[in-house]
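quick one
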Amino acid sequence: MSDTNVVVTYLISTVMTSIPNPASAPSSSSIWTIVVAAGSGSRFGGAIPKQFVQIAGRSVLMWSLHHAAAMSDGIVVVLPADIEADDEPPNVVSQTPVIRATGGASRSASVRAGLAQVPDDASVVLVHDAARPVASSELFRRVAHAVSQGADAATPSVAVIDTIKTVDGGHVDRSTLRAVQTPQGFAADVLRMVHAAGEHATDDATLVARAGRRVVDVEGERWNIKLTEPADEAVIAGLVTRSGQTAPMHASPTHRDGSP
Ligand code: C5P
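structure w/ cytidine-5'-monophosphate:
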């Protein structure tokens, strides 16, 4: 095993022993979350992929799993192939099973690898980028709730606040735009159906929309940024440490299906 793998394997085992118990509120449907963490992080650079970078005492992946676990009956974490090679058994943390899967060459391929590990009886599947460590458990709840209310898919998004132009100087009306985030939520059968075609997109809701199924919008979180470049690290460090947990704190969720 390379030095990098030793470091990353250590970080993962730290993650797996630190995930909190899921919310104890009863839920009528089974919610599983796929956390995709198999990217190489080429835009970020560095010795290890960005999702394993330590920020405020935890890896980026750990922060993401921490928020996902509070709203999930189980988690599939999709890891790079060379990390999986150490052949550790799946981790089970308290009542939240964490199953490991090996990622693919594209994000969509990694989601498919994770989806193959989600139990057949899961009714709602959330898909989250490990590189978004500040998404709150409340956001996971909102997205899951929209699906449990009948949407085929639910995507959190925020308004675009910058003036936008094209590279050749053209103007784009920002009022027509939304910046789309994760976690995204799906009726499990719909997510399986759209991924069966083996297509690629930068997110999963795009595949659902292409299939003509119903995607609803839920309000995202402006601070839910994706770790992409080194400069993002300091911003995320400030966000995750504020209020001891994650930036703007919300009222505690009540039920995992989002009902009050
Ligand atoms: O590259 P980007 O930041 O858009 O990746 C979004 C998420 O997808 C990241 O958490 C990354 O680790 C994951 N990913 C993956 N497998 C790939 C490419 C990206 O799991 N082949």
